Amino acid sequence: MKIIGLDVGTKTIGIAVSDPFGWTAQGVETHRRKKGKENEDVQRIVDLVEEEGAEQIVVGLPKNMNGTIGPSGELCQAFAESLKEATGLPVILWDERLTTAAAEKTLISADVSRKKRKNVIDKMAAVFILQGYLDSRS
User: I need a surface site. Which of 28, 116, 117, 133 has the fewest CB within 10 A?
Assistant: First the structure.
């Protein structure tokens, strides 16, 4: 069963997809969001769900270090609800604390330039979110 993983931000959405067995996550793209055009963002994910034949979506939920949910978390919850309505698929909210930091550390250790890191950091964070979810199921 293929699963799509998302790192939803205000400017971009990092997107990852699992292999058909649900073992590994691979980065797909970083979708640039347009202010006031949330329907286009949802439609891009709907299109990807159809292209990939995904049966589930995992959305990273940024929590504060004390476990509370702030404005970014509320944005992700609303986006997840929109995806659930648009696709009819199960949408899981997954604790994403420190995934962007982990992705950045991985890219730095791989000696990826600052300019290139900026272009792939959200996609890499989506991979970390999805892989964390996949690993928790086994």
Answer: 116
